[in-house]
Amino acid sequence: MRYYPVNLDLRDRRVVLVGGGAVAARKARRLIAAGARLCVVSPRLETGLAALAASSSLTHLARTYLPGDMEGATLVFAATDDAAVNLAVAAEAKARGILVDVIDAPRESGFTTPAVLERGDLLITVSTGGASPALSRRIVDRLQPLFGPEYAEAIALLGEIREKILTAKGGSAYTRQVFAELAALDLPALLENGHRDAIDQILLKLSASESRPGPDGAGKKDPS
Known about the structure:
The protein is α/β, with parallel strands linked by helices. Helices cover 43% and strands 14% of the residues. It contains eight helices and seven strands. The protein has helices at residues 22-33, 47-54, 83-96, 133-143, 150-169, 173-184, 187-192, 196-209, and strands at 14-18, 37-41, 59-61, 75-78, 99-102, 115-119, 122-126. The strands form two sheets. It has a five-stranded parallel sheet with strand order 3-2-1-4-5, sandwiched between helices. A two-stranded antiparallel sheet has the order 6-7. β6 (115-119) and β7 (122-126) form a beta hairpin. The radius of gyration is 23 Å and the shape is elongated. It starts with 13 loop residues before the first strand and ends in a 15-residue tail after the last helix.
């Protein structure tokens, strides 16, 4: 395994994207959705990127890349159609210790971005290590029918339940038991098929758990 898989929190972090074409536009949309403070450096922008710039979703430097443009960046993307420019961007990023993704040149990159299937907070990623992005996208296309919008709702519900359990019970043995039971349930299928009565039973069980004695024998609620 050449690459280490990781999810990055880019909220309010500066990311520099060099290039203004269709590939850059695809990168930009995901970076903005992740909350990055995106700066795009390119003399021209394709239509989608221009619309994002016009709506102030990104900062646009309407010129060719200059040394120093990546100052303060967490990540850099080199996505121009000029290999020399991309390599110059990569060289500066490496000198500054900034991770860089050189589109179509994974061997010059510090990281690569996978193909993504997104359903709310559920992310399924597919990577070929840069060998064949087209194959990665094809695999994602095959997965799409298996993971419908019900997965977004299921993940949101699980997040709410998890927060409630942790607030009520912390790290008790009962908490771990409920987590195991939740994991064994096929919530997406229940949601897809409209079996919300089963989900209501989960919520009732959770509510009842708040009054159960904790490990020290004390209940969570005041019995008076």
